[in-house]
Amino acid sequence: MYLSSVRAGATVTAAPARRVLTGNVLALGLVSLVTDVSAEMVGSVLPAYLVLGLHLTVSQYGMVDGLFTGATALTRLAGGYAADRFRRRKLVAGIGYGLSAAAKAGLLLTGAAPAAIGALLAVDRTGKGLRTAPRDALITLSVPEHRLGRAFGAHRALDSLGAFAGPLVAVGVLALAGSGRSYDAVFLTSLCFALLGVLLLALFVRDHTGPLPSTRVRPGAALALLGRGPFRALCMAAALLGLTTVGDGFVYLLLQRRDDLPVTAFPLLAVGSALAYLLLAAPLGRLADRVGRRPVVLAGYGAVVAVQLLLAAGAGASVLVVPAVLLLHGAFYAATDGVLPAIAGPLLPAHLRTSGLALLQTGQALAGLCSSVLFGLAWQYWGTSVACLAAAGAAAAALAVSVPLLKGPSTR
User: Fold this and answer.
1) 338 in a domain, yes or no?
2) Which of 21, 262, 310, 371 is the most buried (most CB within 10 A)?
3) Do the beta carbons of residue 277 and residue 397 sit within 8 Å?
4) Which residue windows are transmembrane per the record (predicted)?
5) Model confidence over 286-307: pLDDT tens digits?
6) Quick check: helix, strand or coil at residue 79?
7) Largest interatomic CA distance in the chain
8) Is 156 in a helix, a strand, or coil?
């Protein structure tokens, strides 16, 4: 019933909030849900596959993970520009979802070649880079400004439900497939979910059809947005904080080595973080609308510092370290992933909103690339405890610098 209303409805910007949250936002959330099942099936087994299965060093994994994250950088800008220039946000997002599906198909053909796997991961992240800004722009154009936190919270809750289910599906597939071609079974199942996400987008998501300025969008329009002081400060803070954030794969590898977990149980670590994200995304989105988005984002990055300090504790620490790390890691995403674009949306003109969000996300992607490479090198040459303590110190310093940068009317 809800999905049929998405197809039949007109522009939803002026619709009541309750209807909006069961229209375009719901449809986009369902697309993200099944796509995240696909992505997290692969993502939850990938660190173990590369490090424990193919025997990559942690510094080599850091480079692959950096490529996995950073490959979205330039494509985010290209996707944002194309979506604004041709006013086809849904089409650009659909191309991105399609590329990610194609990458899952390619994983079935690569065998155990790390270079080929890295190239396909780059294709997958290229797809993510193309689709993320148009998708988020559609959300900002589908709800009133004062409800952006709730809308992104609702969307991210559905997204995180997929992130929660994906590793569980991967565990089930690994158990059923047994040894031998078990990873191929994961990749095949992941492809099926990816194709379902493309189908849902095509059938049920509506593009924004409201009036937009007729001025032609120029290629340099996104960079020109950095002339806006509040938006420039937000981009600087997001990139700085992203530079000191340890990626998911490293968090799970550290926990796996701490307790010597079997490979078949490795995806369950991602389940724990996804469950925390699922439970906290919508409440923190509502809290951001009520008390201000800035304090919620800062608290999220405070959780990053706490995670890195707990990871530095090592194997002799309390058994509560693992659940505490997973809870805080999920809380970090719940407090930042949807709230940052909710801050950025009101700072950007409607006809350049996709380009602006892409610029913000590009800075985060480049920061994530550097973070993965640097942490992988630090782990290999300094050891886990020193690397984690250094990351915690850097994150705390970045948090202190970002406090004044995040001041603004849309952050309160």
Assistant:
1) yes
2) 371
3) no
4) 157-179, 185-205, 233-255, 261-284, 296-325, 331-350, 384-406
5) 899 898 899 999 999 999 999 9
6) helix
7) 63
8) helix
CATH number at residue 174: 1.20.1250.20
- Spatial distance between the Cα atoms of 92 and 78, rounded to a whole number of angstroms: 10
* Any domain includes 215: no
What is the residue-wise DSSP string for 329-349? HHHHHHHHTTHHHHHHGGGS-
- Is 37 within a domain? yes
pLDDT tens by residue, 167-183: 889 888 888 876 656 77
Strands (E), 313-392: none
Regions of the chain where pLDDT drops below 70: 1-22, 67-72, 111-112, 114, 178-181, 209-217, 219, 314-318, 408-412
Q: What is the residue whose two structure tokens read 């065998």?
A: 111
Crossing angle of helices 321-336 and 267-291, rounded to 10°: 40
Angle of helix 24-47 versus helix 267-291 axis, rounded to 10: 140
Distance in angstroms (rounded) separating the CA atoms of residues 38 and 124: 11
55-113 pLDDT, tens digit each:
778 888 887 777 666 666 777 888 888 888 888 889 999 999 999 999 999 888 776 67
The count of domains in the chain is 1
Find the domain containing 234 and state its range: 16-205+226-405
